[in-house]
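Review form for a predicted model. The reviewer records the input and the model, then writes brief findings.
Reviewer: anonymous (R2)
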Amino acid sequence: MYNKTGLGTPAIVLISIGILALLAFMWVSGTYNSLVSLDENLNQRFGNIQSAYQRRADLIPNLVATVKTSAAFEKELQTQIAGLRSGIVNAQAPAEMEVVSQRINSALTFAFEAYPNIKTTDQFQQLGAQLEGTENRIKVERDNYNGAVKDYNVQVRRFPGNIIAGMFGFGLKESFSATEGAEKAPDVNKLFE
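Model under review:
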């Protein structure tokens, strides 16, 4: 049997099968490539979490060390000034008071020339801001990761993509979840011990 195109029924069937095979191949490859893209997005998001953790591990101990050093210096300076002031109280002659007063002025002048901005309180506030900022960055990266996991898992589970996912070994991924005990806030005071 021939139709108006001059092709027989077997040829039309073969062409139809070829077109269907081509469409099936395009669908399979599109679904596979979509899964690969989502999987790589997950890997990137997980890497971003690791990067934020590394930033915290590098930054926080250095900030704490800086604040500790500054606080120790200020404490030492205040102790010296208190000691010199007590010399004024114990001084009996006006000349002794003048000498002690000059020592206090010299100590203060030296300290403020060498360290013009002695403000440990500001450093503690900066440390607090850095801690908050760092933890916010980590939270954002975790949230982004969990969103990427959701998108990936939807694609893996949705029919008929789940067939392709199963054929090529794309399994479900776990969302980020906190470790046991993470609901308790860390004791930053221990860092200052």
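Findings: The mean pLDDT is 79.
Further findings: Residues 9-90 form the longest helix (82 residues).
Recommendation: see findings above.
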